[in-house]
């Protein structure tokens, strides 16, 4: 998990993201729906990828 912190947070437009860990189902993990209402990046509990919501002004 130390190397995953080097991956920058993934910016998405919506409030909810579905993380599968990888585009290939054989390499991924169970789908996790993550709510992005927090000011800090939300973290996938399976793979550690971080997501933030793109803010429109």
TrEMBL record:
One GO cellular component term, please give it: mitochondrion
Q: Where is the Zinc finger CHCC-type domain?
A: 14-51
Sorted alphabetically, which InterPro entries does this protein's record hold?
Znf_CHCC
Q: Which GO terms describe its biological process?
A: mitochondrial electron transport, NADH to ubiquinone
Q: Would you say which domain of life the source belongs to?
A: Eukaryota
Q: Output the Pfam families linked to this UniProt entry.
A: zf-CHCC
PANTHER family, per this entry?
A: NADH DEHYDROGENASE [UBIQUINONE] IRON-SULFUR PROTEIN 6, MITOCHONDRIAL, NADH-UBIQUINONE OXIDOREDUCTASE 13 KD-A SUBUNIT
What is the name of this protein?
Zinc finger CHCC-type domain-containing protein
């Amino acid at each position: 998990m130390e190397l995953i912190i080097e991956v920058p947070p993934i910016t998405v437009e919506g409030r909810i993201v579905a993380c599968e860990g990888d585009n290939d189902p054989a390499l991924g993990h169970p789908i996790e729906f993550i709510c992005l209402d927090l000011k800090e990046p939300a973290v996938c509990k399976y793979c550690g990828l971080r997501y933030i919501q793109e803010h429109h002004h």
